[in-house]
Amino acid sequence: MSGFTPQSTHHRARKRFGQNFLVDQSIINRIVESIDPHAGQHIVEIGPGQAALTRKLIAALGSGGSIDAIEIDRDLVARLVHEFDAGKLRVHQADAMEFDFATLPAPLRVVGNLPYNISTPILFRLCEYEDRISDMTFMLQKEVVDRMAALAGEDARGRLSVMLQYRFKIEKCFDVPPTAFKPVPAVDSSIVRLTPLAAEHDAPAGARRLKPKDEKAFALMVTHAFAKRRKMLRNSLSAWVTPEGWSTIGVDPKARAEDLTTAEFVAISDWTFVNKP
Ligand code: SAM
């Protein structure tokens, strides 16, 4: 026996996998509090890394709970498999961008300190599993969280805000300084929670998921509007809405994309669906 265990060697953080590991115990505790794990629950963690969150989550889930974790780095996977009981932590060595979340039992509570280089694509990918998700709590670059939560009229409002807000309630929990990580990242981070909005038609306005008549056309229109965000809508969306259409929709054609509420984007998309200029 050589005495080697995966834990016995130092893991060098890999930049290509966006590895900045949480080391500040009080921040780790606050994140776990925001996730609010209950005994017996099942959680899905993306990028467990060196298990800073995983370890505390497993303790909070108790004997009846478990975690499915998706980790791309095979060295870290070996460490995780070595440290935890397979009944408590099932580690999938996979790219979260390719992993099929439908193979996991719903409803999914998804958490993670996401690799910042692929955080937006992961958010869009998880939207595909919206029906199976009960909530998601993530650490992301602060600037991304500000864009996710930005309301009509705010500078940070963009495609990400609209495409997430028509499906999810978005709550920024708190900011995390670079000093909470090793290695120290160049940017500030924030914790954000996403909860799917109610699908029922009779849910109160604001709590109800919006249903564009054609979701693909809606996504395309929103992308287009923000690609030319400094332009007035009557110019940026001239291929979508006729000059007369704006008054029927009830949106000012001189407004810019960042001025619109999510419901107004849906109204434009639905008008286009029926009227197709
Ligand atoms: N959760 C740990 C923590 O808070 O200290 C690690 C967070 S670190 C910012 C991101 C983690 O995601 C790393 O463990 C990294 O290897 C993993 N990762 C990076 N890209 C990934 C991908 N495409 N799919 C799954 N995991 C990925």
Topology diagram in text:
Blueprint: E1 21-22, H1 25-35, E2 42-46, H2 52-61, E3 66-71, H3 74-83, E4 89-93, E5 108-113, H4 119-127, E6 133-141, H5 142-149, H6 159-165, E7 168-176, E8 181-182, E9 189-196, H7 215-227, H8 233-236, H9 245-249, H10 262-275
Bound molecules: S-adenosylmethionine.
Please tell me about this protein's structure:
The chain is an alpha/beta fold and 277 residues long. It has two domains: 6-196, 3-Layer(aba) Sandwich (Rossmann fold), CATH 3.40.50.150; 210-274, Orthogonal Bundle (Helicase, Ruva Protein, domain 3). It is built from ten helices and nine strands. The protein has a seven-stranded mixed beta sheet with strand order 4-3-2-5-6-9-7. Strand 5 (108-113), helix 4 (119-127) and strand 6 (133-141) form a beta-alpha-beta unit. Helix 1 packs across helix 2 and helix 7 (215-227) packs across helix 10. The longest helix is centred in the C-terminal third of the chain and has 14 residues, at 262-275. It starts with 20 loop residues before the first strand and ends with a helix. The mean pLDDT is 94. Bound molecules: S-adenosylmethionine.
